[in-house]
Amino acid sequence: MDTEIKIISRRRKKYVRSTNRDINIVHRNPNPESHPFEQAREYKRALNSVKMDRIFAKPFLTAMTGHIDGIYCLERHPKYLSRVVSASADGEIRVWDLMRRKTVANVQAHNQFIRGITISKPNGNFFFSCSDDQTIKQWRFSDLRSNVNSEYQKKKKPVSTFISEETLRGIDHHWSRHTFVTSGDTVQVWDHKRSKPFQKLTFGTTETSSAIKFSPVQKNVFATAGSDRSVGLYDLKISTPIRKVILKNQTNAISWNPMEAFNFTVANEDQNCYTFDMRRLDRALCIHNGHLNAVMDVDYSPTGREFVTASYDHTIRIFNIRSISSRDVYHTRRMKRVFVAKYSGDSKFIISASDDMNIRLWKSEASKPLLPVDRKEKNAIKYRESLKKRYGYLPEIRRISKHRHLPRVLYFMKQQKKKSLQARARKYRNMKMNNPSSVKQTKMRKRFIVKQLK
Amino acid sequence: MNKKNQSIFKEEPITSKKNKSRNAKPIKPKNSATKTKKTPTKQNQKNKNQKKNSATKTKKTPAKQNKNTNNKNQNQNNKQNQNKNKNQKKNVNKNKNQNKNQNSNQKKNQNKNQNKKQNQNKNTKNKNVNKNKNQDKNQNQNKNKNKNQNKNDQPVKSKIFATKTKTTPTKQNKNQNKNKNQDQKKNKNQSKNKNQNKNQNSNQKKNQNKNQNNNQKKNQNQNKNQNKNKNQNQNKNQNKNKNQNKNQNKNKNKGKNQGKNKKRNQNKNDRRTPRRKWSQEKIGQYKKFTRGSGASTQHVKDRKLRGMMKSTERTIRRGALLSIKSSQYLQEKPGYIKVKNKSKRTETITQKDIVKNIEIGDQYKNFELNLRTFGPYISEYSHNGRFLLLAGKKGHISLIDWMRSNQLTEFHVEEQVRDVAFLQNETLFAVAQKKYTYIYDNKGMEIHELDNHTDINRLDFLRYHFLLASVGNAGIIQWQDVSTGEIAGKAQTKLGPCDCMRQNPYNAVMLCGHIRGVVTMWSPSVKTPLASMYVHKTKVNDIAVDRTGNYLVTASEEVVKVWDIRTYKCLHQLPYLKGVSRTLDISQTGMLAVSEGSRVSIWKDVLKKPKSYPYLRDSLGSGYIERVRFCPYEDVLGVSHMNGFRSLVIPGSGDPNIDSFEANPFRTLKQRSETTVKQLLEKLDPEMISLDPKFIGKVDTGASKVRNNELQLMEKANKEQSLERKRRFSKFSNNDDDDSSTNNDQSGAVITKKKRKNKDKLKEKIRKMQRNVMDQKKEKLINRLERRKHRKEKRKEKRKEKRKNKNQGIQKGGEFRALNRFSKRF
After folding, report:
1. Where are the WD repeats (chain A) (predicted)?
2. Is residue B351 within 8 Å of residue B635, measured between CB atoms?
3. DSSP string spanning A40-93?
4. Is residue A71 packed enough to be buried (19+ CB in 10 Å), middle (13-18) or exposed (0-12)?
5. Nearest to B330 among A3, A29, A277 (CB)
6. Greater confidence, A241 or B492?
């Protein structure tokens, strides 16, 4: 034969599975010519996945009842993922198991408002509660573990009680040592074994501080928020306050970034959160806005990439640490003013406690599946994520992905706020144009700061 | 060949010819009902004889023809070479080696040809066998060495020569003798090497061609760089031939020149990216997979953005490399025809020859259906190539799984049928009938009557948009969304009745060919054509666009033209056609099938450059071809004609590698339903159809341009308006005043006062005051002005100082300390 001829001949075996139990054989051809309308189809896929995200966004998991008064304190256990301690205004403390969604233990700890609880971080066996009755009580978890019985309740006694000479507004435990600090008229430093504070720290003025938080990285540093609208930094080692900044409004809560040692975020009364660099308090690294009423609490995710805020406007918001606007808003009809919101230890859940005597459990990613996903689905999710990232800037996709439903009242409030902000900006612009000398030019990131003290 | 015939259809009028079906068991032929290849009609017999004759003739005649022409060519080449060689002798040219190599290659090919001839004679004369063997050995050696010498350029050239050189042995010898003399002269210096080559020479001497000897010697000398030939080699190595240099570098003996060369080479290599080392094919693939050059990040000032862009570019590049790798592991290779006798055109190969040469399992792909009653047939393949929809113009429709020779449905609509089109999969298809268009399912049940589409001549389905496009005698092009039933677009072509429409598979734009010789392009969202091309002087019979969307082929009476859609320019037209070309089709690999009355010709690689003769041909013998369609993902061409359907095997026409998620001929019913759901989810909007399908996600630079233009126009208009007003006003109020100004106005020039550049209130105030009088106010103002100047100067000085300090500070702060990372520089 003087010619050699070959044509395409496909063996059925190569293309069709031999039995019904096999996986279907898949052939891929990367040649772009065999995939027409690549861009358009990818765009469509991105659009679909964004829509699906919105459809499957069901973040609310459960509400746990038990408290008879509003819950104002909540702390997650440093070792056990499912353990949470909460305290309400009537002086009751409850220990929760998130897995079973139940109260594991409870105790009537104080007769008055409990202002703060903290779990001893080195071992996690104890927790402390401080109250308006000027006492700090140390509790052992194992003592409380029993069924909720009124007779037995009386037997539940604290390991030790510390009596303070001053009012107590907040408490936090050191991350490695057996010391804890309380805020009040002065900052008091306590030891487990001593009945009286071994150190008292002040800036020399008569302010009372409320929130107090140790840095998880630089363990001797802690920050307080004072009633004189200040945020102050202290160092246990040098036993003096480091520096302090006074803002225009009062700060309600402080949270340190566990991954970026210098950065912390404060929840402010003026509806914003401010992220600060510890070394320089005269301007914020980032302003996070979105809430429509005072922000009551802020807590960083253990990953250090996001934080959750609880607000007086009945909502929880999740922020990326670098972004101005929030990534997500959670609300339900029955949830009232939220006073505490905390990330779970694995950063998958958010626990919130509110006025309405309930503790609520949320997913931190609204549309992510909770159950374990198989490899195929995982890949599909990955693919969808990358598509969303790629086409996220296109207007339609952006609109859908950013859209969040807000309750009617909040929606109008939001618009009002927007209007008022716009008006203010316009006024500022006009003043700048017409009477430049009257306008003091300050950057947005410095505008809310009154002064910095050292 | 065992040809077992099987009737596909039970009914009488439709008969079939099949070579062998793979899966179905063979059934004994019903001679009464079927007319098979074994019992051909007289016409067929005649044709066969003709074919045979022609085939036998063609074996001889073209050779004769070629002899003369090729000899001429060769002579010319040789003359050229002679001249060059002379030059070489005088000056040690840099091109020496190249010429030599050319010569050597020429001779090699000559030798090859000789070999072939001898091989042909093998059967008759066994005497030459030994000689042939020796020759083969020598040739192998030659080949290896030549490969070493010239990897890049020479093989291509040799191919060209291969096609040209076929001569009678006597004339060859003459030419060779000429060459011989020259080469011998050259080889005088090299003759010292003979000792080493003795053995080889002894073998070669047995051969009558002494040229081979010389060539071999030369090659050996060049490659081995023997000590005695050092000087010669050094001179030769001045050539830019890289491979030679590489060989040199490997050798330990280096002259000074060689050293320099090496350095040069190294420098070049340093400058170049590793891509340089890639083969041309790989570079092409890389370009294809990166989908064009990436965005340049140099001019992006935003560091964050730049970083992001860079990282995306990196991922794209990585992806391209990965897909190159994965495409190396693709399962199937494309089909081909290799003719060992280089002078023989593939054109002469008949379907019979092809069928003989392919595997038995694939022979079923060549078959014929004799369907005489329901007259000229049209055919359409499903997008995965597995199903065939046949429609007779007189109303007969059948849906066939042609790969398994299984008929899914067959029915008669008892009406004229003008066109058919598959919808999203083989379960649904649309049929343009006498008045309305109907949709049927794979059981033959009528699902819809589309009374919007009346009097339709052509149908087409846009798979990714779910749009059924139609055009008819009313000259209205219409798109209907098949999933929702909405009419996505409707436009009047205003060019009379239209019976020619195809889609551009690259961008889903519909192309219509009109009676006036115009081709128009349509998108459902635009009421006017996106583009129109004046293509032929007479009616456009058919059009086809290739898969890349770059080339358009149009057919009119006896002219077939190839166009570049990107430039809207005609590239060339097919050289000659033997009849009226009614239909066209372009395969996935870019082959073009053109009908010429009762014949069909298939052209390979014709889109990019003109060809003088086709790749393959086939003819019906009588009648005319109504439609040709390439089967996707198969090497098959479906030719439907007056009396039925013929499936031709065209090696290399289909895309060998399927993508299961794109088009899978082996898909199961479950997979089919799943893909349909996905298809529906990913349905593209009709608004997305535009000439550039990649516009999504791009920055719309056009919009800003348009906006700017509009603004400019507005400004112009406003100025004109104001000028007009002025004119009117001046006329109305005082005609006598300001003649000059009105003149200016009439001339259209815009009068504007020169604005003072720096409007300064203080200065203005001073200026407004009387010049001669110096009062207190003026003094004050002047003082203030002076003070301000002073302040400005001071500020400038301060700034300068600051800058100086800054620079110094940076120098100081620039020192690296271990603790610096903890303190941000503010």
Report:
1. 64-106, 107-149, 288-329, 331-372
2. no
3. HHHHHHHHHHHHHHHHT---EEEEE---SS-EEEEEE-SS-TTEEEEEETTSEE
4. buried
5. A29
6. B492
Mean pLDDT, chain B, whole residue set: 73
Q: Which of B251, B105, A400 is nearest to B97 (CA)?
A: B105
What is the bridge-based pairing of β-strands A316-320 and A326-330?
Answer: antiparallel
- Please list, in sequence order, all residues whose beta carbon lies within 8 angstroms of the beta carbon of residue B656, skipping any fewer than 6 positions away: A8, B330, B332, B333, B334, B335, B633
Question: Which residue has tokens 């540093």?
Answer: A221
* Dihedral sign of CA atoms A400, A403, A408, A411 in order: negative
Give SS3 for A296: strand
What pTM does this model have? 0.70
Compute the distance between CA of residue B40 and CA of residue B51 in angstroms, rounded to an integer: 14
Q: Which of A36, A48, A391 has its CB closest to that of B506?
A: A36
DSSP state of B607: T
C-alpha B59, offset from chain centre: 33
Binding-face residues of B in 679-738 toward A, CB within 8 A: 681-684, 688, 693-697
- Taking alpha carbons only, the member of B501, B462, B457 closest to residue B483 is B462
CB contact under 8 A, A31 and B288: yes
Rounded CA gap, B603 and A7, in Å?
A: 17
Confidence of residue B666 (pLDDT cuts 50, 70, 90): very high
Would you say residue B714 has pLDDT above 90? no
Give the pair of three-digit tokens for residue B131. Answer: 């000689």
Residue B228, pLDDT > 60, answer no
The answer to whether the Cα torsion of B144, B146, B149, B155 is positive or negative is: negative
Q: State the CB neighbour count (10 A cutoff) for residue B243.
A: 15
Cα B470 to Cα B280: distance, rounded to the nearest angstrom = 43
Instruction: Mark which residues 99-158 of B lie under 8 Å from A by CB.
Output: none
The 10s digit of each residue's pLDDT in B178-198 is 444 444 444 444 444 444 444
Distance from the B325 Cα atom to the nearest Cα atom in chain A, whole angstroms: 10
Query: In chain A, which residues have their Cβ closer than 8 Å to the Cβ of B547?
Result: 33, 36
Cα(B85)–Cα(B72) distance, integer angstroms:
20
B548 Cα to chain A: minimum distance (Å): 6
What is the Cα A200 distance to its own chain's centre?
30
State the Cα–Cα distance between residues A305 and B466, nearest whole angstrom.
Answer: 43
| Whether pLDDT at B265 is above 70 | no
> Computed from CA positions of residues B808, B811, B814, B819, in that sequence, does the dihedral angle turn out positive or negative?
negative
Q: What are the φ/ψ torsions at residue B191 (nearest 5 degrees)?
A: -60, -15
**Mean pLDDT (whole number) for B267-277:** 50
Q: Which of B227, B284, B278 is nearest to B252 (CA)?
A: B227
Spell out a b/e string for B316-346, using b for 16 or more CB atoms within 10 Å of the CB, else e.
beeebeebbeebeeeebebbebeeeebbbbb
Burial status of residue A166 (CB atoms within 10 A of its CB: 0-12, 13-18, 19 or more): middle
Please compute the mean of the pLDDT values over residues A233-251 and round it to a whole number.
Answer: 90
- Give the one of B634, B664, B693 whose C-beta lies nearest to A8's C-beta: B634
Is residue B292 less than 8 Å (CB to CB) from chain A? no
Q: For residues A363, A368, A370 and A375, what is the CA-based torsion angle, rounded to 10 degrees?
A: -160
Residues 235-274 of A with CB under 8 A from B: none
Among A97-106, A232-241, A250-259, B730-739, the minimum mean pLDDT is found in B730-739
Alpha helices in A191-312 (DSSP H): none
Min Cα distance B143 → chain A (Å) is: 22
A3: nearest CB among B326, B353, B824: B353
Any bridge partners for residue B400, and if so which? B388, B407
Indicate yes or no: CB of A41 within 8 angstroms of CB of B361. no
The pair of structure tokens assigned to A325 is: 């606007």
